[in-house]
Amino acid sequence: MILILLILIPLLSGILSFAVKGEGAKALALISSMLTLAVSAYVSGANYTAPIAYSHDWIHVLGSQFSLMGDGMSSMLCLLTGIVVLVVMIVNVNKDVEKPGAFYGFLLLSQAGLMGVFLAYDALVFYMFWELALIPVYFLCSKWGGEKRIPVTFKFFIYTFVGSLMMLAGLIYLSMQTQGMSSYSWNDIVRAGSSLSPDKQVWLFCLIFIAFAIKMPIFPFHTWQPDIYEQSPTPVTIILSALMVKMGLFAILRWLLPVLPAGVAYWSDTVVILSVIGIVYASCIAIVQTDLKRLVAYSSIAHMGLMCAVAFGHSNVGMHGVMVQMFNHGINITGMWLMVSMIENRWGTRDMTKLGGMATAAPQMAIALVIISLANIALPLTNGFIGEFMLYNGLFNGSGILIMAVAGLGIILGAVYTLNMIQKAAYGQVTAMAIKKDLSMNEYLGVGIIIILILFLGVYPKPLLDLTAGIASMIVR
Amino acid sequence: MKAIIATTIFGIIMMFTGIWVSNKKTLATLAVLLFAILTGVSIWDLVTTPANAPQLLFSNMLRMEHYSLWFNTLMTAVTFLYALLMGKEIQKVGAHVAEYFALIFFILCGAYILSSYNNMLMLFIGIEILSIPQYILAGSDKRNLKSSEASLKYFLMGAFSTGILLMGITLLYGAARTFNIMEMVSVLHSDSLDPLALAGILFIMIALSFKVSAAPMHMWTPDVYDGSPTPFTAFMATVVKAVAFFAFLRLFQVSFNSLSSHWTIVLAVITAATLLVGNVTAVFQQSVKRMLAYSSIAQAGFMLFAVLAVNMWAWQGIIIYAVAYSVATIGIFSVLVKLKDYTYDGFNGLAQKEPLLAFVTTIFLFSLAGIPLTGGFMAKYYVLLAVVQQGQLMWLVIFALLMAAISVYYYFRVIIAMYFKPGNPELNNPVTPGDKLMLIITCIIVILLGIFPQLLINNI
User: Fold this and answer.
1) Domain residue ranges in chain A
2) What share of chain A is helix, strand, coil (3-state, %, to 5)?
3) Contact B373 A169 (CB under 8 A)
4) Using an 8 Å Cβ cutoff, are A182 and A63 in contact?
5) How close is the nearest chain B Cα to the Cα of A129, in Å?
6) Which of B67, B143, B82 lies closest to B317, judged by CA?
7) pLDDT in tens, A435-467
8) Candidates A59, A161, A169; nearest CB to B398
9) Percentage of chain B surpassing pLDDT 70?
10) Phi/psi zone of residue A381: left (φ > 0), alpha (ψ -120 to 50 degrees), beta?
11) pLDDT averaged over chain B?
């Protein structure tokens, strides 16, 4: 029952928010996201004893149940969603948006969709929430985004919608293969999928994987991403890059790897190679970017590529690393976007060539930027390190030294563009700021949460590792 | 049975009331009242018929199963909703308001026959009763040349297709020596099929494809839907089309099910062509009304899935599809008639001026595009399920899903116009609280169907 709260709180407050005018919407969003975070913390905590599950009869004739499962992986991602949305709300407290009621309403609705995706334990429920998470984002980007927002968002929507529909075909087919009456429950789908003949699994894999590949996105399905990250308002960019891309990876771990083992075995080399190409390709492009948003967008493609490559690598450590890194990447990339938006807010530009001297003009901001950037390139004692270490370890065990070496270029290139960015933005000649101000109180709080998490999990990652250990070994088996 | 009698009597009552009453509003109110009573009568029909004992009427000419009565009830209820949403607009079409409503009652009479015919002759009679009032409705805006063109075009094409239908029935009679669709099953065998019968089946398939506007027999649809007065387009594109599909499915399920190896591939190609033509052409339209005409062709492609599948899911699928599609389309049309300009640009800025209209239109468009939590998603879902269950046509399923993605493009253009483009759309007359209430109810129905589709199919 408590799981349903995770969806209901943001859903209802989101709907309510449309009716609220002005400042009330912000307060409502803030309270709602605090409550959601509290519930998701409770759900995660419960996992150290026993995971919480919930099920209710839904569409009986179809064999679909409204069932939710808060196991280690799900509750970790719900926790991430809770934290990230709360940070977004905190940082936006002193910012004005047009029509705040609708803006925060859509943000909360997308949070509800995300929670649903992470918790769903029934394929049909999963599909519903998968789509529902997308629609609020469509409106957010199209209404509050940058200049080219409408065509860019449209492209994004149609791109992901095509993928979802392919997945739908695959899921329908799988549900038809279940024993007796059709069923969509995770257990039945897994049983039906893994007992299919290998050649069927091979083409079903294509149908289902394409949806997840577009969402993550992995090379060559990534073309929608830099544009939409650039055009979206920052809160939406954060939701997209910290949470929505995790939907793709999460879905692979939950709805693909255990379901179609033979299909995965057939395609895993291809996927690993595509992912590794993506890592190098995105990192190279990131180096030549001068727009901060595009730089972070490409760095995110590189990181997701690494996680995807390891997810297909059949190694226990690697799989564990993927889960831990899902959380860490979510935290770090949120931090990166916060810094980018603060820089844009202070300097009035995101062009790195026009920035400089932050360390002198706004020293606190510069410190935060350095810490978050270093976490993003996985320096030891930051949270990024432990995840990335496990990932490369897994890649070595699962895919061999060659793949690992090529993927390892990602670390080096990542250091190149990140340090370059720090150098250009934080040091050098002080350039004119539009607003001369260091961190404000609420930004302090938001960035503070991120930095505390970075350092805490960098030094003591055990809680996170324990939370996901069981799931990782279960998926690999 | 009671409903057939009731709708005929109500139609005649409407016609005669038109002689003595000239106040349009009174007439419309009377019609809405009669539609409400008719809905009651069909429910009465439904509950008095036991679930497993179909009623045979007119010496086996009609066979009223429980599910066909349920379908009748749903279609009558949708018509009632249509009358509530469109009543005011129908009054504006022309002088003969009483006749318009009378014709709609007669169309329903044809619908009742088509949902329960047991004999090829009743199929023919049903289709004629369904079609002839529509020819008149299409041309009811007499001073408008496009309306007259629509009427004539519809009549000629309709008459042509009826000819083909009769030819098909004749050929089939030659092979099976019976008009009874139940008896036909025992005469026609898949391994030794008379070429006459095969030709008959193909002719009937083509004639029915005309009626449901499946490609390549769809040419009349855009012009007729575009030219007819908008309130009547809404009715033709929804209830009438759904009924034609039900009749189509009934014949192919009951009589030709065992012969499916002979006709499945032909129908699959027709389906693919319908999806392709409908969706791709809709992309290039500038007028929302014409886009909806092509979208109705595209949706017909999905409904054909049910006919292709001929299994238990197909019945459920066609019922959910019929209701979900009809309700959403009637909803969109009822917003469209309120606008002066039917192009996409006419919707610019609607969200600022009339937030509620824009919101409900968005939900209706979501439903047509098949976004989850709306009735349209469940409808698409069921028909896809039916075909996947049947097992042979996975390529068609994937093709249809790609086409569904295209449909998002043209449906979302309306949403983009309403929400993200500046403008000041002109309305024909102010939106009253009554209109708003009806639109909200319609919207709730659409969402409810998306969450609990079993409401429609639990009792069949």
Assistant:
1) 268-477
2) 80, 5, 20
3) no
4) yes
5) 8
6) B67
7) 777 778 888 888 999 999 999 998 898 888 888
8) A169
9) 100
10) left
11) 90
